[in-house]
Amino acid sequence: MNHPHPRRPTWLAKRAGLTPATGAVRRIVREGGLNTVCQSARCPNLGECFAHGTATFMILGATCARACGFCAVATARPEPVDADEPERVAHAAAAMGLTHVVVTSVTRDDLADGGAPHFAATIATLRTRTPLATVEVLTPDFGGDVGAIDTVIDAAPDVYNHNVETVSRLYPAVRPQAVYARSLALIRRVADRAPTITTKSGIMVGLGETADEVRATMTDLKRAGCDVVTIGQYLQPTRKNLPVAEYVAPEVFDEYRRIGEEEIGLATVFAAPYVRSSYHAGELLKKTSKL
Fold first, then answer.
1. Maximum pairwise Cα distance, the chain
2. Which residues make Cβ contacts (< 8 Å) with residue 137, sequence separation at least 6?
3. Nearest of 252, 238, 247, 239 to residue 7 by alpha carbon
4. How far apart are the two ends of the chain, measured CA to CA in Å?
5. 74-75 vs 159-161, strand pairing mode
6. Which residue, of 2, 67, 83, 259, has the greatest Cβ tally within 10 A?
């Protein structure tokens, strides 16, 4: 993964003006003692999403048990599970007036259940406090624990997202503590056990993968029962993270979308430089929903 640092292209220029919603989102998150992946992962869409009054909640603490090469979330001994967090997430979602709530988490390999019951509790509380909102979860792989995966499935989110993140060849550098086949198996489990739940996964490009590998990954996801695939440009969040190997041109993203939808048969492929897992997630669900 030793690549020269390419020059950042003009198509990656991004600006988001401040709106009254920006400050409101920050205040609601801060007063609720909550974490967002937008802030913890240094998402480049933070300004845009906060300006539109949306955020992706990150439960189970702010420190992760794993150290992925692409991710800016802190790696350290995770904190105790906060039993009141689901209620605070639901309160914040209601205060923000969200019609689609996205909840993700750090990976909690230190917990026997991976934190799956906490996801289920958060979904259940959101159903009570924001009954008109759809709910999307983006979970870790739970170490492949089928019982933990089923706990989240049984809580019946509208969307179950689990990112494979990159092509299988790059896992040792990008996701050293994860297993490509294990992630595919999680998606297959959701698709088989709850066919009405929209299944979703995402990858980053620009890490050194080839176009053929991207095609193969989309094919693997389709075979696993995945409905929606998101593809975005990897951007190095800190100097400690992997460097960018390539800035992928917008027309290549367009071609990935065409291949995924027209040749491979995925229901929806959302591909563009700034696409991330939860970017415009509510609109994407309306386009793809099985409901």
1. 51
2. 102, 103, 104, 119, 123, 152, 157, 159, 160, 161
3. 247
4. 42
5. unpaired
6. 259
Burial class of residue 153 in the structure, from the number of CB atoms within 10 Å of its CB (0-12 exposed, 13-18 middle, 19+ buried): buried
Q: What is the mean pLDDT of residues 155-163?
A: 97
**What are the DSSP calls for 122-178, one per residue?**
HHHHHHHHSTTSEEEEE---GGG-HHHHHHHHHT--SEEE---BS-GGGHHHH-TT-
Q: How many helices (H) and strands (E) does the chain have?
A: 11, 10
pTM exceeds 0.85, yes or no: yes
Nearest to 55 by CA among 282, 251, 248: 282
* 88-to-32, 132, 134 alpha-carbon distances in Å: 6, 18, 17
Q: Six-digit token pair at 114?
A: 């991976």
- The rounded radius of gyration (Å) of the Cα atoms in the chain is 18
Instruction: Please provide residue 271's backbone torsions phi and psi, each rounded to the nearest 5 degrees.
Output: -130, 120
Q: Enumerate long-range contacts of 261-264, CB under 8 Å, 24 or more apart.
A: 264/215, 264/218, 264/219, 264/222
The token duo for 119 is 């996801």
Whether 16 shows a pLDDT value over 90: the answer reads no
Question: pLDDT tens for residues 223-278?
Answer: 999 999 999 999 988 888 899 999 999 999 999 999 999 999 999 999 999 998 88
C-alpha span between 278 and 43 (Å, rounded)? 11
Strands 56-59 and 35-36: antiparallel
